[in-house]
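FAQ: What does a multi-protein file look like?

Like this. Sequence, then tokens, then the next protein.
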Amino acid sequence: MRLRSTFFNNYQILKTSWVVLLFNFIGFLMFAELQQGQDVIRSLGFQSNGNIYNSRHTIMLCILMIYWGWQNFRSARIITHFKTFHFSEFYKPYAIRTLVLVPRIFSSFPFLIISYATYKANEGFVPLIFLYLTLALWLFIFLIYRRKIMVYLMAKNFPFRFLWDYIPVKNDGYPVAFIIYKQRWWIIQRFIILALTFALVLAFPISFSRFTGVCGIVILALSSWMMFFTLLSLFEHRYKTPFIFLFFFSFFLFSFFNNNHEIRTLKKEEPDKRMYLDTYINHWLLKKNQYEDTVKVCLVACEGGGIRAAYWSNEVLSELNLKVPNFNDHVLAYSSVSGGTLGTVCYNLANQCSFNPVEARNITRNFLKNDFLSPVMGYAMFPDALQRFLPFPVANFDRAAILEKTWENSWEGACLDKPLLLKKGYLENQFTGRNDQGPLLFFNATQIETGKRVLVSPVKFGENQFYETTDLLNIINKDIPLSTAVLLSARFPYVTPAGLIVDKNNKKWGHVGDGGYYENLGISTLLEVYTRLRTISDLKQIPIKVTFIFIRNTKDFSNAEPLGGLYEIMAPIEAYLNVWYKGGGYNFNMMKNISLKKDDKILNFALPRFENDIIPLGWSLSRQATDYIDSQVEHVVEVELKKKH
């Protein structure tokens, strides 16, 4: 009987404190289940390990875990104070003690979540876990004796009277007006902290977020929004108004006219002076044929995959530049998707900054090892989160634009000789084919409304040359910052939103999302370039030898275990994600079976992946992840180059 009563009483309290449980569950998913969270967690520590952020971010995490635990406790206490509990009548004093104990247990949740995430990320116990659990114990002890501590301090004339807001726990609910009065200082402090955090993220989106770190930003957001919904619940009871319902209704209603994700464009408008694809290929072949009887042509496709794809693509290209004589001179076109686009651009920009391939590689490594994640997360969880509940768009709240500016800022620090290359227009940069010799960089994206391919292209192309494909620059008739062009290809779900496109007539044309929605390797674009290349070389009677280079980084899901629980919910999600990942593989296998010319060949540079490896899709890589990629690239490139195709 007593055990049944205990379960019932705890259920009553847990049901009432759903806000606390919800935001802690979200935290568990972000830190312990997502690969990006795991990669960030395992990078923490007090030994630098080559990363200047580690010690600072670990200290910030410890401080903010205490803050999160304290907010868990206070949120639960606020909620339980204005609720009346109909506990089981058996051993009622025990039920009241449970009401006291459960909020204190809630205070330990953040430490338990981070400890488990740390254990999982490091595949075993590390000393940091002991530190986290020790902090949890001290906070729990403080919560037990906090009243006596405050009484003692006040007796010693310490100026803490404004913090004295103790309300005894009881079964019956207190009048809400009484709770608000007693907790007024606490409520004011929460609003001040929320407003201050918002202001810091808005005023210093890159420096503040990087100082705090990804874990710190996420914890600040979780605890802030948890307290916000706690206060909404409190004021609901005070004013008998469904604030939480109205809050989410405004989210739905305002979404029809508060889209703040219009892409950035350059103000200068000029007639479209780009060459046509056929004209460019013709000029390129004629120039190369002056020095080579049989022109060697490389066509490169870089698979999507966030920062993992960016880092691996750059490493493979840099290694090829070291091992293949005159590699850059033979590349006619790059077709890239998502993070592969960032890697391709970085590689080409670095070659403008330095003719020394080793120095160029170091420039891109230094750039890609930056923390791109915390600024976009800070904006996503504060300014852009607020935007969802405003009836009008605020362009400065766009988290996508912050990611672009983070890239621009990081490039300025990585390449001191040419710091503004990512800020310049896509067509302004010299590698986009304007000198008739450099490579063509095609960035693949997807129109959300139609599912058709969208290309950011340095050349114009005829309607029948690319199947169901839109030339973005022709639609807007403007150049766009290079960083914006890169992100158009890399707007993968939820982290970065689809970009709103306004056409040359100032009308909404549609939204552009990640190129991986259409096809995650960019082979489709490359095949169509190959078709035009072969047609023109035959027409001009210029012999060519084509090498297809595919740079891939995703896992092979062919041997996955059958679905377990929640199969009806998870089946569509798993199927979509796996087909998305394998989309490039389907086209790659198709390439093997098409009728390539006799001397043409395919090189496939795939990052070795394992079942439980942690190399995330997001916008931040740990030292462990980059070290692993660095250790694999030389061997992978050597083995593939030695193969007879």
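And here is the next protein:
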Amino acid sequence: MTEEYQIRVLPQVGYDEENIKSYLAQEKGLDLRTVKQVRVLKRSIDARHRDIYVNLKVRAYINEFPQDEAFAKTDYNDVADRPAVIVVGEGPGGLFASLKLIELGFRPIVLERGKDVRERKKDMALIKKTQAVDPESNYCFGEGGAGAYSDGKLYTRSKKRGPVDKILNVFCQHGASTSILADAHPHIGTDKLPRVIENMRNTILQCGGEVHFQTKMTSFLLEGDKVVGVEATDSRPPVPVTVVFHGPVILATGHSARDVYRYLADTQVEMEPKGIAVGVRLEHPAQLIDQIQYHNKSGKGKYLPTAEYSFVTQVEGRGVYSFCMCPGGFVIPSATGPEQTVTNGMSPANRGTQWSNSGMVVQLNPEDVEGDDLLRVMHYQEQLERDTWQQGNRKQTAPAQRMADFVNSRLSYDLPKSSYAPGLISSPLHFWMPSFIVKRLQEGFRIFGKQAHGFLTNEAVMIASETRTSSPVRILRDRERLMHVRLQGLFPCGEGAGYAGGIVSAGIDGERCAEMVAAYLQQL
């Protein structure tokens, strides 16, 4: 027999299975000896008041053990002899599109410009040692996309729980902890996610699909207004070669594939500029954030997770907000080419470092950038990244400033210890960053400091610049069929196409694109 309960408990109960059993026995009148197992179905923290509680939905197994998996399993069958679909990019959009194609009986051929998830880790390690960025293998390019080594957060504001649950269950099927099914803000962790991604790739291969690394799409194959495949460059040794792949195309290249945007603009593929957000990566001591969020000088204590935060306000008609908050994490260098300095954040599964960081960004709309160039928002990104690189002594060393000094337009004569591995250099961000950003961040920080006492502090450091929050363009597609508005057989997908904003939403969009490709092929 099973029973489900909604309970509100202290942290020492909410994060310990045996304590949950004891609580149920005492509060619900159960015989502890008969409660064989409990499964947490939903878990969230209520930290609005001084006393912290954990809200749980639990299933108790009375005189029996679970007979089913803790997650819903998807069947993937052999598709080796089925029609091919080209998937450009192996980030979350491309991965979930590929798995959905297999589920629907089609063969994905995945083209990934970067290396596999383990090999790209070596190139990322070289950034600290050499201050040089491999333009094809870095924190943004390679198997798993930008999310693979930038935290693996699975939180989304999507209200369509069905598709969200499907994405989370597929992750669990490929090795992620089932805790992501329960937690309000699920998170796999940068140290755990690569193995999950490898398992997803292995499913694609075992089912007859293909995955081609270091293979970059260079152009579409066109028959009139119909995309029938792609031409690509295979850059693996000994020499680069041109290769051709035939089939409809799911274009899931991620938000940093600027060469793709330039190609689309040059060939007059319909798209439009899209708003982004730009600013800095803000890093606090993790214990300070714990103290603020949990209203306790001792911080999170033994049972609570490292604290998160979320801030948002309006300043002079534009949003100012926290983005991609990484408790107990690192600030990382996320440039994808020369003469760029770009920051991002990530956290290991245990969120156990001494720092917590988030992007602190200002909304930037296309009308905020002069001109009528389709790529003007992208050019704005590039210029800010180039300016940041120059201020950082033309290395991956990042210009930085203490938070309170920035708000008061003062130079920071020294900087706190930071997780940013290539190193920081003190710089007057308030002086050289665009005033559009500076004025709004300064006022936003004053507001956030009033909302959370202690948040506005010189113990925190601002690290420039955070620019890759989303795609600077939207590739136009039909709302119903998800196909490009003119080019038949082309399905712009995920964050890079301007239709998603994180791992889960990109995964959902990937699945939807796969469904539309299947419908398209069935009509031919």
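Q: Is there any per-entry metadata?
A: Some entries carry free-text notes. For the entry above: Residues 328 and 352 are 5 Å apart (CA to CA).
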